[in-house]
Amino acid sequence: MGELWARKTRRKFKWREWRYQVFFEVPVLYTAPPGITVGPLTKVKPRAKLIDISWRKSDTESAKESSKTYQDKAIPMEVIEIQKHFHPIYKITGTESSCKHTLTKFSNDEEKWANVHTAEDEGCSWVLLLDALQGQEKASRAWDNALQQGLSHTICCLIQRKRRCWDFMPPNTTKPFATTTICHLIEIMSMLGLVWKEFDMKKTSLSAEGNGYMVKSEYVPGLGILTRFSRLSKAEHKENRIVPCEEIKRLCFGEVPSLFDTVRESLQVSPGRLEYCLKRLLPKLGHEHRKLILGKTEEPSRSLMFPITFELIAMTAKSVHIPGSKFRRLPNPCKDNWNPGLDAAASDKHYYAQEEDRQANKDRAAQQHNTRLLVLLDSLHLAVEMVDERLKDLVAKPQFGEVLALHLAAVLDQQNTLNLELANATGDNPKEKILINFYLNNIFPAAVKEPVEAVSGTQTPDSTTSQSAGSDEATLSPATTATEERSAIWLGLMFKMWSWLFLHDFNPEDKMIERSEFKNNRLPIYIG
Description:
Elements: H1 2-6, E1 10-14, E2 19-32, H2 50-56, H3 60-66, E3 79-80, E4 89-91, H4 96-101, H5 125-144, E5 156-165, E6 178-181, H6 182-191, E7 195-200, E8 205-210, E9 213-220, E10 224-231, H7 248-251, E11 255-256, E12 267-268, H8 274-281, H9 287-294, H10 308-316, E13 329-330, H11 344-351, H12 358-362, H13 366-392, H14 398-413, H15 415-423, H16 431-448, H17 452-455, H18 461-467, H19 478-503, E14 505-506, E15 524-527
Parallel strand pairs: 10-15, 13-14
Antiparallel strand pairs: 1-2, 2-5, 3-4, 4-5, 6-15, 7-8, 8-9, 9-10, 11-12
Helix pairs in contact: 10-19, 11-16, 11-19, 13-19, 14-16, 14-19, 15-16
């Protein structure tokens, strides 16, 4: 258990059985917004006294205020004790006081790291997990160097201390174990930078590794699924840290926060839900094109940019970037690997037809680069939000889904032609410029074209008379207005796509394994 947690162990003599009982404390881990005031462990409600009943009427308003599950005053707190019927909640922030409350070792200096760790197999692995979570918060916040350290984060790891008795431990268990749930385990491992390699609940086989950590599971009779957390090498918690936003509770399970949320629909791109999602949200997309996106064809045309699923995500997903922060990485919600073959920032540049000396920017000082990067990220985040506000008014219209479906179909149909042009890129004619020109010249006309049934209608005598009116009374025809609206939708989606891809990033090794049914699932998981 480590020295600090071992201090909470107590022995109590049981006179009836003439023996000692051993009591100890272990953590219960979960993830929640930093302003949460409730946790999984509650206290026994005390009996109401007469004096309490007489004061109850006068304290009604204050009781309602303190009983809220989320309160802004709890955000800066490291120990949350607002609701008295819950055990204290300890927030993991990486500070010395947070380490003290979570009984974790705190080190001010960088420790030397040994190459081999063969002796770390006797203690409880959840002690290493707490060390990893505290180390992540400390290192990533120091690298980010934001003005408000952690106050802008919308998710964090928290623990409560649970008192257990060794009498009720399963017979095959030799070490105290911590407790969490399957959904919180997935979120915590993703926040630490681990990639799931195996996720088979039927065989109770869970395996994830990455960023110097590894976790594996086994089934223990009389207990359930027991996992063990291991540390393999030194971890990095800098630019590769997952954005600490509440939206990762959806992204970890293949659900993307998107514009479709405004019409009470969800964009689900996990392997088991993508096909149904495409049929529901994009009914105009043909069956053959759906098979290409799902990878069901024998010889699908591979893009030299990135898989088309990421194009769908970037065009419709909401920006989860935190203003004032440089974190960009997100859990991969789809089955395709993220291996971009171009620079999203350069694509934005060519989208606006602006020229600048990129090499001169690379030669500047690192501090200036970080400052410019932060300004660029915040500016793009604000621009994406403004575009989203406009697109929210259009997402409920059928034109939005039609433009999106026609765009994906055109990209899939012309993928080989685009790949040939990208293969001929040079220094004077980079891939980003070729891509934008190709999209404007080839994809744009195909995406904004009117459906056949909408443009081939018959004309009535009244419409013929109105069309022959003088130029002074001439106005835009309905077809022209509809074309302009479709053009505005496509241009907005294109700007949003390149900006979103610059604001966010994915681990190239990360790939979604179907687990969408475990979102908000509270199946107990034990950490040995």
